[in-house]
């Protein structure tokens, strides 16, 4: 006897897709849902009357229909609908003492209030639903001595109240999660835009400063040193082309989708020249730069190399702008254990008081942010004997450091 193959199980993705289709249908047909709720409320209440052998049945059916009809407006005014249904139930108890409570319409109305309004409002609605029949009972007792006991703890109403509160709490959690995700995405966008701003500043500020220095040198030395002036102009064109390439690269990142922005920007600067080439560019602009390396070799990490390059570039750009009469600019790069120390020191003096500033103030902030990304710090200060020093420390993990042995 061979066993029949079991039908393939529906995977989780298919179940989620079907649930999404059902949820979308419910959200797109609210009036149809309300009609079904009215029909279900009426049917349940009539069934309860039949089971309880209510006689005559017709008044009970009419009251069930009258109490269920206001549910069509439960989305717009749930609390008003609840009070209306409770009032109809109280009037029905006065007209027909044996009718019993309209538990099901009231339960549907109480669910709507609990799912869309505050808990105090839902509790008040429950109190109204059980107190109005009690008032009717008291009136009948005083008028003709007919006594009946309204239910203070209606099980259907309590279940509806619990379900409504659970649904509201679930919606609030979903909204909170959605708001949290939206905030995290917005924070990520702002962070990436700030990183792009720093990248743009590095490209534009550095390149324009170099180009100004080269152009000034070429114009002043054209007659006495034509060879140097020609070399400066050639370097000027090279710097301009490099700046244009960098600008196009960054603008390409800006045009990318947000989902790919962090990864694109993470790799955008790793095609930078070597640190020695950067120093040569500043030398050609007239800045007497000396590159000093000490300690262990720098770990082969593109992100780390980009950070070191950009910090050095910003510090040298500031020296080119503000170190008037500098005869020596030392760039010292040292790596010991897990700490990289980068120091740029010049012996120039500050520009004359009142001279217009050439910077935006973003450069030193960018240095601090890049150092902080590697759990480091940065300082920038004028030296007592004259000159300026910009220093940054970067901390790398043991796995990234090079073993000196």
Describe the fold and architecture.
There is one protein chain. Helices cover 63% and strands 9% of the residues. By secondary structure, it is of the alpha+beta class. Among the domains are: 13-153, no CATH class; 286-405, 2-Layer Sandwich (Heat Shock Protein 90). Strands 1-2-3-5-4 form a five-stranded mixed beta sheet, covered by helices on one side. The longest helix is centred in the middle third of the chain and has 66 residues, at 155-220.
> How far is the first residue's CA from the last residue's CA?
72 Å
Count every beta strand, where a strand is a DSSP E run of 2 or more residues: 5
Which runs of at least 5 residues are low in confidence (pLDDT < 50)?
A: 261-267, 399-405
* Helix-residue proportion: 55-70%
Largest sheet: 5 strands, mixed
The spatial strand order of the largest sheet comes to: 1-2-3-5-4
User: Which strand-content bin applies to the residues?
Assistant: 5-15%
Overall form:
rod-shaped
How many helices? Answer: 12
Task: Give me the strand/helix succession.
Answer: HHHHHHHHHHEHEEHEE
The helix/strand class is alpha+beta
Mean pLDDT, as a whole number?
A: 75
Using only CA atoms, what is the Rg?
Answer: 39 Å
Helix/strand layout:
Blueprint: H1 12-28, H2 30-51, H3 57-68, H4 78-95, H5 103-116, H6 119-144, H7 155-220, H8 226-255, H9 261-268, H10 275-284, E1 289-295, H11 302-322, E2 329-336, E3 339-346, H12 362-373, E4 377-382, E5 388-395
Parallel strand pairs: 1-2
Antiparallel strand pairs: 2-3, 3-5, 4-5
